[in-house]
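Page 47, continued from p. 46.
Same chain as before, 394 aa.
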Amino acid sequence: MFLPFFDALRTERVPVSLREYLAFLDGMNAGLATYDIDAFYHLGRTIMVKDERHIDRYDRAFSRAFAGLESIPDSAVMEAVDIPADWLAKMAEKHLSDAEKAEIEATGGFEALMERLKKRLEEQKGRHQGGSKWVGTAGTSPFGAYGYNPEGVRIGQDKSRHQRAVKVWDKREFRNLDDSVDLGTRNIKVALKRLRRWARDGAVDELDLDSTIRKTAQNGYLDVQTRPERRNAVKVLLFLDVGGSMDPHVQVVEELFSAAKAEFKHLEHFYFHNCLYEGVWRDNKRRWNDQTATWDVLRKYGSDYKCIFVGDASMSPYEVAMPGGANEHWNKEAGSVWLARARDQWPAHLWINPMDQRYWPHTQSLHMIQEIFGADRMVPMTLEGISRGMRLLT
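Result:
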């Protein structure tokens, strides 16, 4: 059953021999990895990868051979399956064809949408299922959950489905990015090393071998000399988009965040959602009651900082262009105003976008941000893109 895995390794040019493959089978027969996916992955990598340069190729081969493995239950035998109640409820969702979706017209603009929502809330007296007018579920109304409308307000839904809502009327919780993630950050660290300026500061706790030899020869006895450790003196300000359409990119952003924490001694980070507004935060668990005013960030960190935004730049155009267009609160000033202030405060700025670059031409808000930052200042979250971005910042 593992022959396709062996073929995938050879296809990805991992130099694995038949002897190593047989050793891998012996390990499986010995029970070193049974129902533990991570143990299974590491067993194969330990036995069949001899050079760290081939780890990425091994990952691609593993993904190709065992796609969907994580969805298999841990137990060997699945005696019964309990269908979740929320899954049954969502079976009532209306699945529209492309032609039906095309028949649903937009609401006529952001302000008209807000006015319609205000009237609906005044008129509606109870719960509503389906339909095209009331605040309800599984319909085509612009207000509610589990339905479809090209421009609507999402109310009472656990996550985005079509990513078309211009405002979300729920309090959502996001988790902090894990800066301890190490797997997969190696190549990102190499790319980030292009952005460096070496300086020796701090405690004199590093052995200076050349000076020690010279002083010992001069004095006739062992004279140990020390010096401050050489560190990257570049100062980086990192703004990280979290939640919503960024959820599929959490892993790669965590890898970037982890690599940046390891590479830059002077690193400050803040979170935002979709677009920069009047407040940012350091802890997603406290983002509603412990925000830092963006004005304070602009005043505190000088223009010598390298400013890096990380986000997919995918949102309603209202969120960039209009006061009150923010997805989860009412903003007095448009997001474009705050982005322009950040651009002017930190001339060395960059936007790293984890979304596949093939889809960039189809995202209006992305082009609006490119106009503010400069088209060359938005790079894809690939090794080539990050390397190019680091060259721009220097």
